[in-house]
Amino acid sequence: MSAAELTPPEAARWAARAGLPLPAERHAAAAATANHIHAVVAVLRELDFGDTPPAPAYRAGEEQHDAAV
Whole-model pTM? Predict the structure, then answer.
């Protein structure tokens, strides 16, 4: 998928390729949802997680609690 926003006809075509044919009235909603997800993922890709340990390193109940907000 390119950086340009997905259009309703493209959303319908991609859904059909995935075996999920959409009724015509759902094309615009599917495109809007896909564009929103793409925007959120693009923001997440910009975050620097360099000092963040991988999820298996987290141990529930062992975190330090303090009053800092």
Answer: 0.64
